[in-house]
Amino acid sequence: MGKRPAIRTCPSDSLIPPLDSSPTIETQLAKLQAQFDLLKVQVRQAQQLASLGTAAATMVHEVNNWLTPILSYAKAALEANDVELHRKALTVTIRNVEVLVAMSERVLEISAARPPKRELVSVRAMAQDATASLCRDLSKDGIRFSIDVEESITVWADALQLKQVFFNLFLNAREAMASVHSGRLTVSAKGEGQRVLIAVRNTGAAIPPDRLPHVFDPLHSSKAAERGGRNRCAGLGLALCRDLTEENGGTISVTSEANTGTTFTLALPATERNAQ
Questions:
Q1: N- or C-end of the chain: fewer Cβ atoms within 10 A?
Q2: Taking the model in full, what pTM does it have?
């Protein structure tokens, strides 16, 4: 038999790259986490924009209401040589534009996606701000709105995120009562140990029992996905409410009964220590 060819070996350092030339598992995990966090922010912003899309028709209607007097007074002032009418036209223009600017700022704030900044936040103040962000007085839709929350009640949360939760719950309530153009929307809160329980109640149509366990699932909705001949992205608002509430160390639950309405209950930390 002939001799077997000798097996040539290479130095170990030519087969195994130096430790610092390839990413470690920890580095790879860190990069994946960063990508996941970025994706989460993008999804969050998409959810918020979807909620604003649902409210867009109402916002456009309100914008039109504020622009119409501006146009009317401007036309009249141009056609008349009347100093007082000119003054009136400018006054109406300034006042209505200021309202529209404030409305735009609230809309932009609602659609913002940024890292949370937690602090002690007034529940009453955030509920009031969220109502203003709807860009239309609820009474115009036949809805009686009340906030039964003492000024002293605060929660440890991100103010903008809490406002976004209220905004989506109020938007949901308005849609639930839209068909009858009447109803009540109330916000109440009370302390319970180291947590604050916030109840948002509306007297609109009840959520069907078979859908109740799924109301916080993304893309699930108790309302028709098509309204007014147009498809819309439904079911993202309540999923956003759940995500934001949990990010702030809280929980959200829902009960709904026929002839009574629907109640969303938030349980949020009352102090920083409890949120750790």
A1: N
A2: 0.68
